[in-house]
Amino acid sequence: EYCDASTKSCENEIETADSKKLIFYDVNPPEGFNLRRDVYMRFAIMISEAQKRGKSNWELVLPPWYNLYHWKTDRRTQTPWSQFFDLKALQSFAPVVEMHEVFSRSKKKTLEIDTLYVLENFEDAFENGVFEEKWEVLGECSYDGQFWGYKNITAKEVLCVKFQGKNSKLWELVSLHPHNTKIMFAHGEIPLHDTYGTKTYWDCRKSMKFNSNLVKIAKKYISKYLNCDSDQCKTYLSVHWRRQDFARSRGNDVPSITGTVKQIHKALKKLPNTKKVFIATDASMSELNNLEKELSSLGYEIHFFLPSSKMIEEFGDGGIAIIDQIICSHAVHFIGTHESTFTFRIQEEREILGFDSSTTFNRLCPDTGRCERMSKWTIVN
Ligand SMILES: C[C@@H]1O[C@H](OP(=O)(O)OP(=O)(O)OC[C@H]2O[C@@H](n3cnc4c(=O)[nH]c(N)nc43)[C@H](O)[C@@H]2O)[C@@H](O)[C@H](O)[C@@H]1O
Fold it and tell me: Where are the coiled-coil regions (predicted)?
């Protein structure tokens, strides 16, 4: 039961059928797109599970994509989730609503959050040697976030809370203020998955279908350049080649360009009928050209998705990233980058598409030293 720590307030919780209550969250600014997708799942599962238990009038507000550190285009506009995902599909799993919808429902031009909980970690997660789920309200404090760039959002009360535990434990904080209708959690990345890897987890993951325009563009590309019109393509191998900060500071995890070529060559030798390689990457053009040159000299045909500036303007860096992910997800064999959430999301997509996991959980290894195997997070249907 959710409210074990404060049963009294739970019993008093006011739920009127016609009044929707809203849960908002934001995420630590430096976190990237693909970790944020995982944080969404934790909240969506929290709300959907509560709905099953009769807490039916809570909705989750989808935090607009704003000012993402890695994205160069459109940083200062609030991008709705529908630009990247199929909203109806998300709503088939959990009651979620876009921020612009929250504004358009209300007659007011401003939005006031009743209580904003600023979550922070306990200094020692394993106090006395045990990991215990717990929270502690520290008192009023100030919010150092940006409300997704909206100047017209404020909070009546801001409380700092040390928090350690699963998302569902946040209901205990919610129940401290039974009359509140708008509650926000800052640092939504701190609470943990309730049901990592379970059927519920995968049901939620499956509901994260991409925006159909992005799917269309990716499929057209696959058909035209990679000669495949089915979901599982035998015609190409795909690689997520994470560079930038990974290449600069994770030399023990990622290979050099020549090391990358060697590993792709080795994988392709096992696929005698496959000569095409699709590379998804955040590498610079010069790195990519070098990789292409080396692979071409071995007789392979290299492809990467080069969006026009109009396309970048229309879909943003996030949209282009998704197109790369879709193309990677349909390949006969996939090789990803160690500990990249961008890679993890492709692997999940391939699990959903039904690929054998041996074609999916492969990684690029460093040129020298240990190369740990990737954990296999296989689908539960
Ligand atoms: C270690 C952590 O790794 C995290 O990155 P990691 O999990 O790879 O995954 P993301 O956080 O999604 O990657 C950051 C961004 O880099 C771009 N990007 C990376 N790979 C590709 C690609 O193959 N194609 C395209 N189009 N874009 C790519 C994309 O904009 C993505 O949102 C970082 O966000 C954290 O800041 C931290 O550095």
Answer: none
